[in-house]
Design goal:
single chain; 191 residues; mainly alpha; 2 domains; 3-stranded antiparallel β-sheet; 3 strands
């Protein structure tokens, strides 16, 4: 990914191809891919690092599936940050606990203001310049954020669990909960 980034910055935006393959004629199923041609990358004169060249060489066929590469990179990056968060939490457990305790006390004190604060900040989500995570995350302790990390990638479940945690401090009006639920993407249907 780093070499591809440098290639795009210093050489060119590589030519992309959208490829559709029939995977099952009877069921009419298709595979759609956004690909880079290996030969074009290697013939560009760019100074690919050894790991990048090795990766390009190991890809079967004459093209590289960009979505597969990006998804793999994203998964590795998220895994690293999750590990780092767990490690930092383990190293600084006492501090996390102390901050969570103080923050919980503050949340109990400001509880009457929480619905109005959420409502005001939710307007940014409704305009598309923030996420529900940005809004509700302000009303959660570090311990609660850790508990919610199991929902990484599932904003709907994260939101439901966060609302339950916030309800320990204050009862949110039904209209506000409805507004929140309208801006959270629904779960993908299982087929």
């Amino acid at each position: 990914m780093q070499d591809l980034r440098n290639y795009v910055l210093h050489v060119e935006v590589p030519r992309l191809a959208f490829v559709t393959s029939i995977t099952d004629m009877k069921r009419e199923t298709f595979l759609h891919q956004l690909v880079l041609r290996k030969q074009h990358l290697l013939a560009s004169g760019f100074d690919w690092t050894k790991p990048a060249t090795a990766y390009i060489d190991t890809v079967n066929g004459d093209s590289i599936d960009v979505v597969q590469v990006v998804d793999g990179y994203q998964a590795e990056t998220e895994s690293f940050y999750a590990w780092m968060a767990r490690r930092l939490r383990a190293i600084h457990l006492r501090e996390f606990e102390a901050v969570s305790k103080v923050q919980e006390e503050v949340l109990h004190r400001v509880a009457p203001q929480i619905p109005n604060l959420i409502s005001q900040r939710l307007a940014y989500v409704e305009r598309g310049v923030a996420t529900v995570f940005d809004v509700l995350g302000n009303f959660l302790t570090p311990n609660q954020h850790t508990e919610l990390s199991e929902f990484r990638g599932d904003l709907r479940s994260w939101t439901e669990a966060a609302l339950i945690m916030i309800s320990n401090y204050v009862s949110l009006p039904t209209e506000l909960i409805d507004r929140i639920n309208r801006v959270v993407p629904s779960r993908p249907s299982k087929t």
